[in-house]
Give the backbone structure.
Amino acid sequence: MSQPEPSTAQIADLLPSAVLLTDANGMVTYVNAAAEAILERSARRLEGEMLGSLGPWGQAALNVARRAMAEERAVFAHDVRIDLLSDTRRAAIDAAPLGDGACIAIRLWPEAGGVARGDRAANAAAGFGRMLSHELKNPMAGARGAAQLIASSNDAETAEMATLIMAELDRALRIAERWSKVGDIAPQPSAPFSLNEVVSEALRSMSAASGKGIALTEDYDPSLPDAFGDRDLVLQAVLNLLVNAAEALAGQTSGQIEVTTRYRMSRPGGVAPDARLQVDIADNGPGVPEELGESIFSPFVTGKPAGEGLGLALVSRIAELHGGGLEFESRPGRTVFRIYLREEGA
């Protein structure tokens, strides 16, 4: 016996986004279950009400819908601030004309997390980089010379570790040289590179330096297309996120870090929607302190007792320079930072 086809309303009720339909005057004609949850009213009470009278959520949705109807096109509002009585939420609100009215979708954005603001997050870090670049180059050059001597050791493991140290110092010297010349991070001529290889290399570096006692899980998408940009800078960004995750697990006996690469589907209104390459770095630490919120991306803001608060600002800037973005979601026991990058040819 064949199953009955589900109705459009039944399908809409399964969507995680809030969906509303309005007529030309802004009166609500339909809401799905997610919209009932956001607006805290049943469909019976919402349908027939004017959208603009439904509090901050309704007013924000109406503003986007009016623009979509006036311009006769779909409008995507990525980061809309909703000031509620006891909280401030952020959401992505999409609207498109539908008949004489509008179809509106509301997605809480991001869920329990924050999105980096690249320009704001990087400006102060750039000045700090100018100040430190000259001071960094001399000690790093000396350390490289010492590592080169150690690399001649007859012990294979010691020699391998020294070679890794030299590779890291060479990369740090290249970055410091760029800071001294331009006063800011700037990508070198772009080239295609394997993001999986970069992430794997960064993981090895982190593990050698601070990953002892941490369970590491790697899940790489083998079909991932090449990224395009400055390999050194992307490696630095991923390494910063991994080191942050390891530091968040300090003193924890069952620390875990999961690293995943995947191809991301385009999401209008999301962070860097054209950046399709995604790297997730998750840990089971205590989470980002709630009082820091999105300010965690700002320079000199940190939850670490001895931190400088530059790492995430630099990661944000590097992602932005590669046409991508950075975001996180966090709760005690589960924190995920996601960096998005463009693929070759995008």
